[in-house]
Amino acid sequence: MKTIVIASNNAHKAEEIATALDFPGWEFRTLRDLGLDSDPVEDADSFEGNARIKAQAARAASGGMAVLADDSGLAVDALDGAPGVYSARYAGDPCDDAANNAKLLAELAGVSDEERTGRFVCTLVFIDENGAETVAHGTVEGRIGHEERGEHGFGYDPLFLPDVFDDGRTLAEALPEEKNAVSHRGNALRQLRAKLAPSGR
User: Fold this and answer.
1) b/e for 20-54, b at 16 or more Cβ within 10 A?
2) Distance between start and end Cα atoms, the chain
3) Beta-carbon count within 10 A of 126 CB
4) Cα–Cα dist 121/75, whole Å
C-alpha cells in the first residue's frame, strides 16, 4: 500500500481527493491522521506557489513521503480578482467561512448580477516519493449570489452559482457527487489523474 500525505486536515477535501485518485494500492492520509504538524507560512502570490509551499513542508514533515497539496480560492472579477489567494482568511484570522461570506456580500453590495462574475480556482501540487513534481489546475466559472443558500459544501459554496448549473442552484445546494463533477478541485483532480495515469506513480 502506498500512502499519500494530503497537506491538509480538511476531511471534505481528503474524501474528494481519495474518490478522484482511486489508483489501486493508494491510500490517502491527512496530516492529522499521521500525527504530523505542518503549518507553513503561505506567502506566495499565486495558488500554485502556495500549494508548492504546503507540499514541500508536508514532505519534510513526513520524512520524504509522497504528498499532495492544493491551494484554492475564489476570484471575483468586480473585485479585481479578490479574495484570490487570501480567500481562506478574507475576513482575517482565524479562518471563518461565515465572516468571509459576509465580507464578500458587503464588498459586492450594489453590484449588478451581470457584474458578479467570478470563478473558483484550484492548483494541485503532487510530489512523489522520489521528489518528482506534477502540477494540475482546475476552474469553474459562475456568479456570486446575493444570499447564502444550501447545506452542503463549505467556504464560499453557499454564494457561488456555477454556470454549468442551469437551475440556479449554488454549489452548496448540490449533492457532493454533483459538486465533484463540476468543481474546480474536481477538475484539477481529473487533470492530475490523467497526468499520473497509467503509471499511477
Assistant:
1) bbeeeeeebbbbeebebebebebeeeebbbbbbbb
2) 12
3) 22
4) 7
| Pick from 66, 54, 74, 169: nearest CA to 119 | 74
Beta-carbon-side half-sphere exposure of residue 128 (alpha carbons within 13 Å) = 12
pTM: 0.89
State which amino acid sits at residue 110.
Answer: G
Residues 79 and 108: beta-carbon distance below 8 Å: yes
**Cβ atoms within 10 Å, residue 137:** 16
Say what the pLDDT of residue 199 is: 57
Per DSSP (E only), the strands in 152-197 are 160-162
Instruction: List the grid coordinates of 113.
Output: 448580477
Least confident of 101-115, 119-133, 178-192: 178-192
**pLDDT tens-digit series, residues 18-38:** 888 989 999 999 999 999 988
Percent of the chain with pLDDT over 70: 98
Cβ neighbours of residue 172 closer than 8 Å, sequence gap 6 or more: 148, 149, 150, 151, 152, 153, 157, 158, 160
Do 75 and 150 contact (CB within 8 A), yes or no? no
Query: What pLDDT is recorded for position 166?
Result: 92
- Catalytic hit among 71, 113, 128, 163: 71
CA distance 111 to 115: 6
Residue 167 appears among annotated catalytic residues: no
